[in-house]
Amino acid sequence: MTGAAGRIGAVLREGLRGRYAALRLLDVEDLGTARDGEELVTADLRDYARVEAAAEGVDAVVHLGAIPGEAAFADICEHNLVGTYHVFEAARRQGVQRVVYASSNHATGFYPVSERIGPDAPVRPDSYYGVSKVFGEALGRLYVDKFAMQVACLRIGSFRERPTSRRELSTWLSHRDAVDLVRCCLDAPALGFAIVYGLSANTRSWWDNPEADRIGYRPADDAESFAGEVAANDDHPTEPTDSLQGGPFAAREATAGQPHGVPPVSGGA
């Protein structure tokens, strides 16, 4: 599992431990002390040799590692595009048949919240970050068709312990549902290629999720349980981007012609 020290990685590390014979956890950041059933690897995804060495002998890869929000294109390219290519290619060369790729809802973030969409809708990325996730999905499709691998692309919504905003009542992915989603992708007998929105069973969801049933993913949580709490605490003023599924990631730059003048949006939610 790449990006194992991140927000999602830390939850999956705990939730998947003991379900499989061993978890090999990779990150450029400190992963602490290995627990039973864990192998820790410190590596930068830009270092192909290190990535390929880490892929040796594993049955599947969960690829979370990336810049987790909007950044200058050069940085997104180096980490999210090149790093993702290294992961897929290392998996192929080491004979790993299955990759679970952390894509993002920001691959389709320029759709209006009034429009319900599913995985078959044309991509409409809302940021360089969203573009990088579209790239990863396309790369996964290539490795399925060309090299007979099995790939799940998870368009992760707002990964939180609990929803904290109006938007997250539609996009929330709970911790336990995230663990179950990844487990289903790892255990599905015939994965092929799948694009799955990573979200809980939210009453206000904007997304159809047909592949969830195929892989056996049945989320347990619904953000609606927190709707009253969110309404009571939400003092967020109405923004132009509230009408777009990508929220603040879809903000247009105030000054044209400045490719690196990107608003500081982070968190991949």
List key phrases describing it:
Rossmann fold; alpha/beta; 269 residues; 8 helices; 4-stranded parallel beta sheet; single chain; globular
CATH class, anyone?
Alpha Beta
Number of domains: 1
SSE series: HEEHEHEHEEHEHEHH
pLDDT below 50 for ≥5 consecutive residues: which ranges?
A: 254-266
Kindly report the oligomeric state of this protein.
Answer: single chain
Q: N- to C-terminal separation?
A: 20 Å
Number of strands: 8
> Which outline best applies?
globular
Number of helices: 8
Largest sheet: 4 strands, parallel
Task: State which percent range the strand residues make up.
Answer: 5-15%
- Overall structural class, as computed from helix and strand content, comes to alpha/beta
CATH structural fold name: Rossmann fold
Strand order across the largest sheet: 3-4-5-8
Can you give the helix content as a percent range? 25-40%
Tell me the Rg in angstroms. Answer: 18 Å
- What is the CATH superfamily label? NAD(P)-binding Rossmann-like Domain
Describe the structure.
The protein has a single domain (7-250), classed as Rossmann fold (3-Layer(aba) Sandwich). Helix content is 33%, strand content 14%. It has helices at residues 7-16, 48-55, 73-93, 128-147, 168-171, 175-187, 210-215, 227-233; strands spanning 23-27, 38-42, 60-63, 98-104, 150-156, 158-159, 172-173, 193-198. The longest helix is centred in the N-terminal third of the chain and has 21 residues, at 73-93.
